[in-house]
Amino acid sequence: MTTGTVIGGGPNGLAAAITLARAGVETTLLEAGDTVGGGLRSFEAIVPGLVHDHCAAIHPMAVGSPFLATIDLERRGLRWRSADIECVHPLDDGSAGVLRRSVADTAAGLGADGAAWRALFERPVRNFDKIGPSMLGPLLRVPRHPLALAGFGAPTPLPAAALARAFRTPQARGLWGGVAAHTFRPLHEPMSSAIGKGMLTAGHRFGWQVAEGGSGAIAAALLAEFEDLGGRVETGARVTAANLPSADVTLFDLDPHQVATILGARLPARVRRAFTRFRYGPGAFKVDFAVEGGVPWTNPDARRSSTVHLGGDFSEIAASERTIAAGRMPDRPFVLVGQQYLADPSRSVGDVHPVWSYAHVPNGFAGDAAKAIIAQIERFAPGFRERIVGTAVCSTTEMSRYNANFMGGDINTGSKDPLQLVFGPRITLQPYDLGVPGMYICSAATPPGPAAHGMCGFHAASRALAKL
């Protein structure tokens, strides 16, 4: 019997384990934490019964994942839920850029920029079923539908700042900038458009949905699938160089530094060099709130959306992202706010609601960003402070303790600068290979990168099976 070990139980580790088990490999998944899930874990905090997501919260890429589409998720207890509006980016004058599920409806709300929005998204959204597998795969692989993919991919090498010039209104520019900022990179850099374009395309096609009961429900569904295939899970099992199990196939859902530490001299020198030099991006400083009556946004659409981006106009967002990339904390950081309870009321307790937020901060930021986050929310929702029942803070240090892949609070598992976005931890056409027979890396450090889609794990495991 062929044996497999997967080290790390995040969404990619679970996807890799399922892929191996489906192929008849006797697979064991080892997770250092008390539960599997990685960034897909939920918890009750502040008020008993109030459900918060630890990290991943909104899932446009997961709903459209070709790997997750192979699982009967509803049978596994996972149900997707949507708010009335997908995402809102409020401005200081009370207006906002508003992302709706329909491209046409979004364009209609953007006035003079409606035609530009349609030009960017109508065709890729219509062709998503053709281009989705290529979007969520290694970027240098020959696509099955090259012409359709070209319609999506042509703008992605551009800096987000260059693409912003396609828009004339502050509402459209702000909406675009807020989504592009998910790359955690300066918006004047090449390819800083790629993640934003992918998120918006998937979001228009599937919605920016949440998992009913919390993002942990996604991990629970994957775990149930794996165990039904005969897979074995051990939690509290931290792997080191001294206790690395022997198996025909080993996949690491770990960041490259951890892989290099475990394998040491077993890695070819060129791979070890690349992994020890792997670059991390800015961090996330997270604050969960219990809020009585919800957030009193000035813009009414923000009161109906599961996601609100706070950063002012495009120029302010761009300046903030440049500042954190340079290792300095801005006075007004870019802040993401999740109101998942608007899509999934089961997370609330009476009129007290869980509000999820994090600010972009320098990697390893040692200060307290909670006041800056509250100030940014208060800026667009006067009276917010008075509604706060309680808070739970997760600093960049605590973020990396919660998940060792999030070094310095880097929830993307590595800087998504142009080289690492395209190639992963090292420049190669085989981003999952470690140069050690039977061993592969499958974390979000590899293409296609972060999110709950599981595609890094699926592609790495498929590569391992092909090599067998």
Automatic annotation (TrEMBL):
<protein>
    <submittedName>
        <fullName>NAD(P)/FAD-dependent oxidoreductase</fullName>
    </submittedName>
</protein>
<dbReference type="InterPro" id="IPR036188">
    <property type="entry name" value="FAD/NAD-bd_sf"/>
</dbReference>
<dbReference type="Pfam" id="PF13450">
    <property type="entry name" value="NAD_binding_8"/>
</dbReference>
